[in-house]
Amino acid sequence: MNPYAKKRFSKFLLLTFALIIAGTSLWYTNYLVKKISAAERTRAEVWALSNKKILEIADVNDEFITFIYSVRDSLEVPAIVTDSKGKIIFWKGLDNTKTNIKLEAEQTDAKGIRQKNYDPTYFEQELAQMKDQHDPIRINISSFGMKDEQFVYYKDSILLSRLRIFPYLQLSLITIFLLFAYFVFNTARKSEQNQVWVGLAKETAHQLGTPISSLMAWMELLKSRFKTNEDKSLIIEMENDMKRLEIIAERFSKIGSKPILENQAVFKLVNDFVNYFKVRSSDKIKFEVSGDRQVEALINPPLFDWVLENLLKNAINAVEGSGEILVKISENLVKEQVYIDVKDNGKGIPRNKFETIFQPGYTTRKRGWGLGLSLTRRIIENYHKGSVFVKESEPGKGSTFRIILKSSLNYEPTNT
Known about the structure:
- This protein is an alpha+beta fold.
- The chain has 3 domains: about 20-155, Beta-Lactamase; about 185-255; about 260-405, Heat Shock Protein 90 (2-Layer Sandwich), CATH 3.30.565.
- It is built from 9 helices and 11 strands.
- It has helices spanning about 5-55, 65-75, 95-100, 120-135, 160-225, 230-255, 265-280, 300-320, 370-385, and strands at about 80, 90, 135-145, 145-155, 260-265, 285-290, 295-300, 325-330, 335-345, 385-395, 400-405.
- A 5-stranded mixed β-sheet has the order 6-8-9-11-10. A 4-stranded antiparallel β-sheet has the order 2-1-4-3.
- α1 packs antiparallel against α2 and α7 packs across α8 (about 300-320).
- The chain is rod-shaped.
């Protein structure tokens, strides 16, 4: 299992574990809610029966009715009692400011009994909420030879209402904390990685400096001793490789510092590198560079050569020994962008891997490090303020990578 696959598997395990914890928390809270809800239903039924007994018992001085009153008044669940016609006749546990408004003049019914006044809108809202939450408790009243039916509506207590939302609030806070912690640790980890990467790159450039200088001196000695045309051609190629080593050392030295972007003719830069690269590749692979020769973009040549090298190596691996690699250059005048498309007719990439292939450590080769495309994106996005992505690909038919750079249409060189 490659490092990227291990990393993804670890994330999957952590996510599964987090989901199990969240699911267990929600399940247990829901279990408690059901138990408390059943207990509140029982208390509401007891309260309803206490109201029934109060209406049916004639002897108000009896000790039993005192007990019934204490049972009724002990209910903490908000409730409303209506008659068979839906008229509110009693309530419990509601907002006193809405249920008992002081009147300028007393209102009495036809028998001269003072009527309690209440806010109709408030009671309509409360009653509608109670009907949505629970089925009513029916009470059949038989008092003084008359029969009537009452309905007791109730809603969840404040404790139960808060308990219902508690797990969601808890999980939300935990999620926010974990995301914040992940952001902090991920930022710190990337900072450490960048420091290691920069230090290693600069040390590599420093280590390459001495042998390159020595080899350059030996090259001058060889040129002075061998003067035949055949020897010159060999020396020229050796010089090209020496220059290449210098460029590689310069690449590493630029990592971690802000590179200088220069106005460059894209076609010439790309074509020169492809010509150098194809001499050192298999004769069975055909290279072709096409497009607008006048297009210019802001580029750092040593770093951009690194990008081309990674994409061409990736294309060579895709064609597996023989095939075609085409590089096309175009310009979008409206967006002031330059497009560089690297196309091969190799094995292609599945659509679900279009982003995965740019992840550090991801590779399909046994001896690959999985850093080439990751480094390519880093150079283009961080240093050239452009983008690189898989434009199109189909397994068995090849792939096209697109680089987008800033055009030099409005470029004005600074005087130094």
